């Protein structure tokens, strides 16, 4: 910089006033001069008032000639040996007091001539001070400490004058700066003495350097030093580079200047450097201009020359001081062999840390500070530690780099030459003979056939090696100067380079020359193995397999570890040609991931290193299948051999599974599980697309291939299995092929599938790499680890169960039923083990894993219904269901006698577990093998309701307007078992004319609503249609052989009874004759009775004769045998209840276990009944979730701008609409009976307020799924999710803003309270019109004052006291958790994720399920960012998972996924996020529990209070009576 300027470091004539002092010394003898100086100094010091009390005495020196005599004497005294410490102290005291003449308030003891010309005499004094700092040789620690005390006083005085003097001239500033340069040179230029306490330079190093730099900065602000002084400073610093303190002070000044520089260059919003020391905050003068700061910053940055020279001891020792030491040493050695050079590795590391810290500062890395440089082996920048931390998931905690940071090229212009040179220390840049992959990935590192060219193999090194003697310590002195000991600094440089290139913004271009040097540096850093391992293998004679053996021993070099930790984003960016590093990176991953006992650098946590390796692995997993035809040439290879990326896939899969087997960290395990599911799904879809493309490859190549993501639901719905007839392995971007000779001309390569006619064979997956093989391996590995080692960690268990759920939904052609059966068996064993753990181990987290396992088992059984055809599998499932519901199995062992239900005590592990087991049982009985129904997957319940059924009755005329209340009056309502509501219609439907007892039942239970029509028939329907008799069967032939008829009158008493004489007791009852004779009235009544008897006897006799006459002859033409008239009135409700056993006396009575009888009748005429029935029907029997999708163009942060992007397809990425179609299928919100993302249109079929029944506009960019007319929908047997794309309103009401009646989101408690006060129901005329905008949220809970306060309030178990104290899951609250939001954000620029206005967009995402206070508290927003890379892959970023049950999969933060599986993985992750949120909530209730509570609430409100006779009488009366 200043090479053309002369240096002022060489003392000029008269420096230090040598002429006057020499004349003084030569004029008188030493003893006389010593006494003169001692007396003069003592006298002058005594007048200062420092040693005696009282004010200082005014100086009597009034002439310049007096000073011309005294000052040479004082200067001569400063050169006295340290044994004359008193004289030295007095001289220092006098000069320090005299220098106060430069201050605003000088001391009174300052002589007058000095006051009149302070700058002239100050320069003389400063020159004289030089002799105080000159080293006196080895004097002992005590003497050196005394000298240091005096030197510190002088430095404080000079620093005070520089800071506070208002009259310093330019010459004085230059003299002061030259003085500081000379004393530093005198103290620091000589090599460090072995005994630090005897080295004055080492004791004063930090102090003199800090004063030099601080005073220099003051001079820059007040009197800018001329170029010769800058050149002198540069040359001096380069002579002091063997001192540790120089680099420390250099870093300190650089950080302070950089802090100021960044402050005015990038503004206050840019993260500033953290400086903890208060003195360092004020080290930069406040009056220094911005231009001056920039100039000084750049000059100070280059003041020590090239920091990489610190790794070259021959360069550092090439100074006159080292040469002088070598000449004067007893053992004549070369300057490069001085023992003090052993500190060069740590000095080099400190310098690289300083440069790395400056890089972090310009990148805007938060918490960049000087304190971080002092950490041992700091190769992990704050950006790396944040990005690799599993706990750092706050909204802005993961914002690692400043948005307004400079471009990579700008930073590389500043620091690139140093960093590249440092990264290539001791590297052989000759091309290797062949590529490194698989077994020969690192053979060159351990082979002895090639020795790297070392910068240490200099002439001096060879000479010292040849001249070493047995008694010499030369070899020991150079033991720390081997190339391997500079690997820490090299690793720091590599880490800084990785952070620079990983800070690349979207669309930013990096110069090819920088990319070339960067890839070469990374290649050299990755192929470098541990020195000790290489040496041991070399000695053992291993050659090509040495690196492989070292890898299997789990040893990772320091440089490779730094690259992994700081370069986790290398393959997530659009770096041209980065794919050429895959073989090198894969070799290091094989060293880190599969080893349980990893030998990592001591300063680097093994868990953090494995996490970084996992991130890198997840980012390269999609490359082999994405670029199937791409062949790359490895960096540094001079052979023409190229490696196909598709050949690396088996190695990647084996690496992934091996890492899962040994990984113990929960966060790392969850990331690996996400990668495993991605591999299986990607392989499965790739096989399907390859098979389709082989049949029809001539179709449109840009057809939708992401829509196949919705095909993991096995359904008869047309959109479920929609798979494009053509597919493309996309690579719209370019990945250069980097070679060592011609990198800048790297051509872009497109890996596209071509037809067989083009001469290229379509790559196919190997058998060991097929989807079926991966499927089997994944099931076995995850299930085994889940039971053996993951069961105690809730997060890992949930991740494993989520992976198994994802595998269950895969459609693989060669699916093995035995493996599926084994997976279900393992799930049941897992549940049984978790339930059998001791009571102390039972916790909320444990029960969460059991609940998730039950859900996973349900998914497997629904996806594979044939499993229940296996008796063993069915028995296993039912056993675990029994265990979950009752808490124990009926038959623990096959040899045990089974215990019946009434013999067991009901003690489930918790209510959550019992609810999950009930859900699995219901799924087995009602959904397995039948989902989806013929109506589709939109609804599990029947779409028929009371109004629809009544319109099809024979008795319905259709004249009157039908309402919900009117329809309910025609039905009988009963509740059985306090959980099942029966709505019975006794009128036959119009399509059944047979006069059979018919009843139509709407059965509402915890798991949905079903409709059945039942008839009482004596024969099955298929037999009753065929008549077995003729129309006129004719008269039967008479049979006269009827036998002999005897007329015998029965006798009621024996004949002997009349012969028994009567006794007095028999005569106690008077006879009839006596009574009649005595009473006239009785006689008259007796006569009437006799007449009646006579009449009756005559009538009976006439009838007897007529019968005898009619039956005497056959046939009788007067009488014919006719059929009785048909019965047209049945109490079919009574018949149904009776046949099903509900009308027993016990069923109508209250029991000890429950206050509600088994069968209860409801009064449908009460006010509010129809409305509560609506609430029950709109309480879904599946979980419902909503995800809102936003498209963010580059640089956008305003909500309205973001929502406007989806209006037109021309303003969105061409793959965005494909991604939307991959999430689900399109439904019309007014014709869709399921969840629509908004309560006002969900679960009902209504007429739209405008013409919204048509198809979606084909030119929309996503606004067609805004919820106004259409949404994207996906469902299975257990859950529903709607995908809504908010868009601006154009004359239509926004779906996110409900009408005024629902502007305030009410809780269900408020609505039910309104229902109690307002009678009647809806007034709509359609089958679904009963749903109004004011309906409550479907899965909120009842108000606080409700009679149903908790899930367990109506249920009790057993009769013992122990059950009274037993507490189950939810005790006080049943409020559902629906205040969380899931956003899917498509980013054109990845940096926009840090400015995405999530909170401002919350008002556009109202669904109606939120609680009344959700806006008042901080909303839980889970965001999945999707960024499309130019190479056709997609980068994922997750935000908001800061809860206890975090990291919902299968997507992982930072993962790179392919186009074909993007929609599927995003949907599964969104569902798992919501599912984990529900698991974490203490107040969440499953859907079937909420429906059960609704029914119990209606029982308490509308129950008929009747006894048994009244109940039976009610059955015989019409419901309309």
What would you say this structure looks like, in words?
With 1521 residues, the protein is mainly alpha-helical. 42% of the residues lie in helices and 6% in strands. The chain has 51 helices and 15 strands. The strands form three sheets. The chain has an eight-stranded mixed sheet with strand order 9-10-11-8-12-13-14-15. A hairpin with a 5-residue loop joins strand 13 and strand 14 (1434-1439). Helix 30 packs parallel to helix 32 (771-788), helix 31 runs antiparallel to helix 32 and helix 35 (844-863) runs parallel beside helix 37. The longest helix has 31 residues, at 1080-1110. The radius of gyration is 48 Å and the shape is elongated. 47% of the residues are buried. Mean pLDDT is 77; it is low at 11-15, 390-398, 433-476, 530-552, 697-711, 713-766 and 1296-1376.
Helix content: 40-55%
Number of helices: 51
Low-pLDDT runs of 5+ residues are 11-15, 390-398, 433-476, 530-552, 697-711, 713-766, 1296-1376
Structural class: mainly alpha
Main sheet specs:
8 strands, mixed
What is the terminal separation in angstroms? 108 Å
Sequence of strands across the biggest β-sheet: 9-10-11-8-12-13-14-15
Question: Could you report the average pLDDT, rounded to the nearest whole number?
Answer: 77
Rg, rounded, reads: 48 Å
Strand content: 5-15%
């Amino acid at each position: 910089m200043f090479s053309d300027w002369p240096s002022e470091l060489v003392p000029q004539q008269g420096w230090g006033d040598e002429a006057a002092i020499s004349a003084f010394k030569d004029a008188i003898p030493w003893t006389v001069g010593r006494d003169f100086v001692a007396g003069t100094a003592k006298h002058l010091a005594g007048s200062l008032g420092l040693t005696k009390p009282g004010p200082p005495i005014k100086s009597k020196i009034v002439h310049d000639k007096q000073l011309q005599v005294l000052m040479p004497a004082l200067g001569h005294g400063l050169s006295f040996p340290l044994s004359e410490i008193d004289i030295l102290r007095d001289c220092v005291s006098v000069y320090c007091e005299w220098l106060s003449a430069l201050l605003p308030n000088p001391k009174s003891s300052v002589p007058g001539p000095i006051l009149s010309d302070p700058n002239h005499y100050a320069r003389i004094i400063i020159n004289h001070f030089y002799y105080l700092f000159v080293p006196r040789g080895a004097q002992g620690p005590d003497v050196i400490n005394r000298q240091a005390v005096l030197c510190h006083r002088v430095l404080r005085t000079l620093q005070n004058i520089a800071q506070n003097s208002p009259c310093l001239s330019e010459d004085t500033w230059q003299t002061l700066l030259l003085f500081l340069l000379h004393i530093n040179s005198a103290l620091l230029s000589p090599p460090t003495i072995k005994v630090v306490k005897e080295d004055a330079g080492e004791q004063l190093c930090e102090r003199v350097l800090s004063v030099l730099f601080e005073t220099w900065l003051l001079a820059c602000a007040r009197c800018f030093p001329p170029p010769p002084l800058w050149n002198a400073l540069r040359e001096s610093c380069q002579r002091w580079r063997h001192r540790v303190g120089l680099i420390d002070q250099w870093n300190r000044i650089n950080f302070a200047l950089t802090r100021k520089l960044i402050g005015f260059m990038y503004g206050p919003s840019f993260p500033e450097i953290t400086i903890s020391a208060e003195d360092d905050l004020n080290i930069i003068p406040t009056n220094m201009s911005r231009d001056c700061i920039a100039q000084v910053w750049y000059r100070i940055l280059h003041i020590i020359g090239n920091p990489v020279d610190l790794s070259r001891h021959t360069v550092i020792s090439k100074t006159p001081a080292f040469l002088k030491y070598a000449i004067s040493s007893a053992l004549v050695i070369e300057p490069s062999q001085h023992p003090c050079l052993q500190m060069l590795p740590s000095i080099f590391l400190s310098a690289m840390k300083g440069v790395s810290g400056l890089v972090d500062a310009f990148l805007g890395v938060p918490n960049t500070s000087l304190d971080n440089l002092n950490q041992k082996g700091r190769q992990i920048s704050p950006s790396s530690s944040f990005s690799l931390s599993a706990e750092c998931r706050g909204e802005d905690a993961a914002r690692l780099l400043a948005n307004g940071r400079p471009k990579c090229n700008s930073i590389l212009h500043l620091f690139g030459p140093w960093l590249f040179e440092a990264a290539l220390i001791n590297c052989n840049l000759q091309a290797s003979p062949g590529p490194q992959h698989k077994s020969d990935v690192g053979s060159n590192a351990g082979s002895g056939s090639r020795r790297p060219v070392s910068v240490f193999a200099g002439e001096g090194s060879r000479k010292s090696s040849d001249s070493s003697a047995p008694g010499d310590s030369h070899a020991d002195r150079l033991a720390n100067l081997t190339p391997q000991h500079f690997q820490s600094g090299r690793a720091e440089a590599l880490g800084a380079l990785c952070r620079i290139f990983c800070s690349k913004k979207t669309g930013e271009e990096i110069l090819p020359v920088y990319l070339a040097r960067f890839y070469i540096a990374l290649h050299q850093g990755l192929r470098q193995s541990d020195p000790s391992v290489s040496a041991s293998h070399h000695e053992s004679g291993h050659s090509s397999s040495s690196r492989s053996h070292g890898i299997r021993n789990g040893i990772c070099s320091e440089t490779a570890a730094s690259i992994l930790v700081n370069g986790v984003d290398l393959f997530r960016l659009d770096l041209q040609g980065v794919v050429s590093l895959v073989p090198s990176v894969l070799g290091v991953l094989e060293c880190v991931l599969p080893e349980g006992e990893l030998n990592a650098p001591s300063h680097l946590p093994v868990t953090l290193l494995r996490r970084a390796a996992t991130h890198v692995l997840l980012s390269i997993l999609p490359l082999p299948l994405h670029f199937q035809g791409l062949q790359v040439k490895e960096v540094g290879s001079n052979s023409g051999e190229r490696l196909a990326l598709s050949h690396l896939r088996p190695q990647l899969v084996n690496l992934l599974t091996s890492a899962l087997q040994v990984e113990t960290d929960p966060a790392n395990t969850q990331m690996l599980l996400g990668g495993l599911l991605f591999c299986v799904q990607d392989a499965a879809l790739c096989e399907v697309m390859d098979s389709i493309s082989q049949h029809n490859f001539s179709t449109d190549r840009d057809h939708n291939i992401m829509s196949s993501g919705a095909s993991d639901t096995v359904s008869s719905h047309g959109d479920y299995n929609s798979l494009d007839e053509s597919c493309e392995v996309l690579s719209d971007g370019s990945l250069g092929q980097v070679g060592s000779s011609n990198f800048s001309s790297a051509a872009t390569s497109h890996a596209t599938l071509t037809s067989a006619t083009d001469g290229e064979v379509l790559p196919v997956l190997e058998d060991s790499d097929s989807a079926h093989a991966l499927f089997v391996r994944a099931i076995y590995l995850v299930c085994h680890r889940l039971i053996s080692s993951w069961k105690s960690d809730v997060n890992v268990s949930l991740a494993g169960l989520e992976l198994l759920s994802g595998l269950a939904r895969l459609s693989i052609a060669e699916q093995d039923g035995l493996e599926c059966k084994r997976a279900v068996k393992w799930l049941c064993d897992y549940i049984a083990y978790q339930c059998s753990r001791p009571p102390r181990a039972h916790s909320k987290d444990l029960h969460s894993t059991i609940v998730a396992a039950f859900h996973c088992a349900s998914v497997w059984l629904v996806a594979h219904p044939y499993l229940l055809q296996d008796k063993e599998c069915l028995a296993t499932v039912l056993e675990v269901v029994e265990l979950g519901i009752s808490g124990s199995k009926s038959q623990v062992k096959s040899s045990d006698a089974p215990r019946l239900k009434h013999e067991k005590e009901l003690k489930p592990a918790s209510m959550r577990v019992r609810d999950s087991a009930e859900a699995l049982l219901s799924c087995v009985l009602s959904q397995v093998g039948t989902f989806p129904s013929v109506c589709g997957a939109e609804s599990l319940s029947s779409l028929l309701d009371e109004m629809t059924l009544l319109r099809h009755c024979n008795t319905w005329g259709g004249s009157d307007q039908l309402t919900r209340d009117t329809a309910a009056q025609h039905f009988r309502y009963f509740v059985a078992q306090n959980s099942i509501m029966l709505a019975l219609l006794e009128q036959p439907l119009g399509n059944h004319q047979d006069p059979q007892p018919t009843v139509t039942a709407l059965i509402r239970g915890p798991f949905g609503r079903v409709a059945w029509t039942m008839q009482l028939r004596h024969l099955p329907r298929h037999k009753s249609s065929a008549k077995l008799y003729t129309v006129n069967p004719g008269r039967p032939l008479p049979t006269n052989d009827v036998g002999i008829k005897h007329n015998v009158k029965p006798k009621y008493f024996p004949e002997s009874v009349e012969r028994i004489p009567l006794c007095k007791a028999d005569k106690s009852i008077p006879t009839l004759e006596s009574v009649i004779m005595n009473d006239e009235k009785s006689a008259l009544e007796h006569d009437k009775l006799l007449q009646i008897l006579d009449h009756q006897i005559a009538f009976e006799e006439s009838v007897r004769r007529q019968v005898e006459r009619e039956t005497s002859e056959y046939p009788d033409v007067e009488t014919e045998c006719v059929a009785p008239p048909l019965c047209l009135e049945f109490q079919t409700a009574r018949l149904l209840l009776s046949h099903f056993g509900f009308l027993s006396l016990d069923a109508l009575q209250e029991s000890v276990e429950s206050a509600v009888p088994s069968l209860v009748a409801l009064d449908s005429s009460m006010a509010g009944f129809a409305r509560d029935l609506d609430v029950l029907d709109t309480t879904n029997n599946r979980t419902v979730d909503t995800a809102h999708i936003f498209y963010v163009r580059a640089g956008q942060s305003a909500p309205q701008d973001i929502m406007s992007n989806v209006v037109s397809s021309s303003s969105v990425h061409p793959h965005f609409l494909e991604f939307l179609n991959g999430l689900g299928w399109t439904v019309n919100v007014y014709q869709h009976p399921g969840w629509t993302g908004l309560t006002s249109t969900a679960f009902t079929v209504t007429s739209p307020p405008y013409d919204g029944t048509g198809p979606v506009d084909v030119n929309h960019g996503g606004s067609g799924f805004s919820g106004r007319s259409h949404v994207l929908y996906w469902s299975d047997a257990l859950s529903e999710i709607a995908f809504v794309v908010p868009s601006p309103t154009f004359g239509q009401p926004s779906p996110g803003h409900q009408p005024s009646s629902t502007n305030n989101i009410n809780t269900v408690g408020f609505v039910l309270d309104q229902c109690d006060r307002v009678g009647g129901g809806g007034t709509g005329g359609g089958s679904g019109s009963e749903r109004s905008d004011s309906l409550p949220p479907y899965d909120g809970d009842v108000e606080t004052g409700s009679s149903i306060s908790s899930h367990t309030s109506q249920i009790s178990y057993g009769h013992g006291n122990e059950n009274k104290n037993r507490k189950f899951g939810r005790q006080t609250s049943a409020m559902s958790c629906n205040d969380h939001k899931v956003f899917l954000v498509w980013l054109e620029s990845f940096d926009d994720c840090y400015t995405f206005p999530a909170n401002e967009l919350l008002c556009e995402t109202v669904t109606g399920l939120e609680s009344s206070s959700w806006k008042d508290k901080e909303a839980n927003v889970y965001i999945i960012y999707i960024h499309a890379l130019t190479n056709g892959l997609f980068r994922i970023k997750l935000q908001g998972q800061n809860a206890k049950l975090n990291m919902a999969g299968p997507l992982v933060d930072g993962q790179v996924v392919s186009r074909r599986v993007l929609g599927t993985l995003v949907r599964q992750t969104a569902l798992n996020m919501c599912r984990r949120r529900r698991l974490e909530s203490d107040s969440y209730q499953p859907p079937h529990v909420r429906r059960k509570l609704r029914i119990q609430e209606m029982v308490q409100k509308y129950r008929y209070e009747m006894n048994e006779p009244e109940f039976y009488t009610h059955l015989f009366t019409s419901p309309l009576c």
